Amino acid sequence: EHCKGINGLDKVVLREVRGCSAEVYLYGGQVTSWKNVHGEELLFVSSKANFKPPNAIRGGIPICFPQFSNLGPLEQHGFVRNRLWSIDNDPPPFATTSTNKAFVDLILKHSEEDFKIWPYRCEFRLRVTLGPGGDLMLTSRIRNMSADGKPFSFTFAYHTYFAVTDISEVRVEGLETLDYLDNLKNRERFTEQGDAIVFESEMDRIYLGTPTKIAILDHERKRTFVLRKDGLPDAVVWNPWDKKAKAMTDFGDEEYKHMLCVEAACIEKPITLKPGEEWRGRQEISTVPSSYFSGQ
Ligand code: BG6
């Protein structure tokens, strides 16, 4: 279902028979809502989010491409999160079938205008699928369309804002004992000491070479988010905490208590695509009752 969203921006609503739903804005190719069968919102979007180009929308699942963060010459997190994507009515076939699933295919072709800031030929296809169990899958296919033999490199992240009840009661499992780069300490490299990650202050880390499955346990709500990823070796964990929250104009002062970003990403080793080559990166998120996942 294609309709108008906030400020008249185009969006697509995906619905699943049991009542789950998801919303995708063409602006940013950005998922801004993911609801379970009870109609509960599972993603965080700030009450102060700006749904007005050229601002990025604060919340949901912005896509960082072709540059994560400020790790290069481009604007923070690249530019696709504030471009207008199109519906791709003629996507090339996917290996996996999408029968019984609600999905939408979007495409962003690199414009002549953007060629001036990133001089490559690139086509970005995004499929957003809502599965029969309410799981949400994002598959990106990025292709080098160059005719002159020029490769390009990029970093990438699905900047997912999960909605949580109380950040101080949340833990993340699956990143224990891994190395990470700490964005709050000049990206110095540290090793996680073995316990699940808990939150007592600002956190901004890039975990390297993580398992394909990460769990985010919302103790208060007895709900666990399970994030599965493919082609995306790293994972960013970010919560701005109080001071940074206050400094962000599109984020409420207290909202840090109710969100956590865990981002399937490819950052440490950028991907390089030769002309004609395609890269795929997939993130799937689902929920299970907490007891089911951790055996508690
Ligand atoms: C995270 C980064 O992924 O995104 C943080 O690790 C950054 O350093 C955050 O502050 C938000 O970025 P932005 O550009 O959306 O404010």
List keywords for this structure.
about 300 residues; 3 helices; about 5% helix; single chain; about 45% strand; nine-stranded antiparallel beta sheet; Beta-galactosidase, Chain A, domain 5; binds 6-O-phosphono-beta-D-glucopyranose; eight-stranded antiparallel beta sheet; mainly beta
> Beta fraction of the residues?
35-45%
From the alpha carbons, calculate the radius of gyration and give it in angstroms.
18 Å
How many domains make up the coordinates?
1
User: In CATH's first tier, which class applies?
Assistant: Mainly Beta
Count of helix runs:
3
**Helix amount, in percent?**
under 10%
Which stretches are poorly predicted, pLDDT < 50 over at least 5 residues? none
H/E element order:
EEEEEEEHEEEEEEEEEEEEHEEH
Multimerization status = single chain
Number of strands: 21
Structural class: mainly beta
Please explain how this structure is put together.
There is one protein chain. By secondary structure, the chain is mostly beta strands. It has one domain (2-294): Beta-galactosidase, Chain A, domain 5 (Distorted Sandwich). Helices cover 5% and strands 43% of the residues. The chain has 3 helices and 21 strands. The chain has a 9-stranded antiparallel sheet with strand order 6-7-8-9-21-18-17-12-15. Strands 5, 10, 11, 13, 14, 16, 19 and 20 form an 8-stranded antiparallel sheet that branches. β13 (179-182) and β14 form a beta hairpin. The longest helix is centred in the C-terminal third of the chain and has 7 residues, at 241-247. The N and C termini lie far apart (40 Å). The mean pLDDT is 94. The structure holds 6-O-phosphono-beta-D-glucopyranose. 6-O-phosphono-beta-D-glucopyranose is lined by residues 56, 69, 76-77, 159, 183, 204, 236, 238, 261, 263.
